Amino acid sequence: MTIADPKAPRADQADLDKAADRPEDADQWTAKIRSAAVDALPPQKLLPDRQPAYVASWIYVFGVVTIAALIVVIGTGFVLALFGPNWWHVSSTGLFVNSLHLWAVEVFMFSMVIHLWGKFFMAAWRGKRKATWISGVVSFLVSVGAAFTGYLSQQNFDSQWISTQAKDGINSTGAGAIFNVTNFGQMIMWHIVLLPLVVVALVGLHVLMVRLRGVVTPFAAKNETPGVDAATSGAEVQA
Amino acid sequence: MPAIAFVFGALINLNHPGNYIHWGFIQMSYGNLAVIILMVVVFLAAILIPFKTHKEKGGER
Predict the structure, then answer these.
(1) What is the ipTM of this complex?
(2) B 2-41 → A contacts, CB under 8 A
(3) b or e along A158-169 (b: 16 or more beta carbons within 10 Å of the residue's beta carbon)?
């Protein structure tokens, strides 16, 4: 990295946003990454004020409901981790936060499934959005694992029952050698460290890809040219 | 029953072993069935119920 000369003339703000503080720094890796990131997702695209007209439907609401529920899940999870099982099983406040955690997960999975159905029936992988679709599907599968390890981490008879029922299924796949559902220490680490990190990273990536490509366009009402679907062009409609 | 428990208690008594439906090889609790039916209902409602939008002065939405 170049040491800045305070007397050297500074570039104007547009150039700062585009590449580097000074033209001679433009070939540095920091400037190149920043420039590529700003080119791909400029602030107005990252957090837009407007959406295409076809987004005015309740079916488009369930993605953001899922994210809102995930925020509550993470927040209540932090509080549960702070105080521990004695607190969440015994005190009334602990029971309340434990219930908030459970019901936020219910809302998370519920809205994610409706989001998935909606995107499936509108074939949301069209217009170079395959990676967005796949990241959503993988997020769903990892979320199932996160919920499962959560049920195993309750520290009650229910979690014991679930773990002893699940071990045969997991062992039959061969995964039991490295993923032991009766090992509480391992399951809680998966639940509060590994899987939340993966879910949050995948959801973040998913949202960035949605911002990058935009919301998928609806199917055309009538295909004028057989085999050519206007909706696959990825064109945004601003009605 | 204390008044507070009466007000905030579950509408349905859940303090018993779950009831299951047996449909061929499919076995599912009534609770899970209710959630699946509710998801289908909400999905259809989301498609059918109109989404009110703001009327803008500029004409463009």
Answers:
(1) 0.76
(2) 35, 38-39
(3) ebeeebeebbee
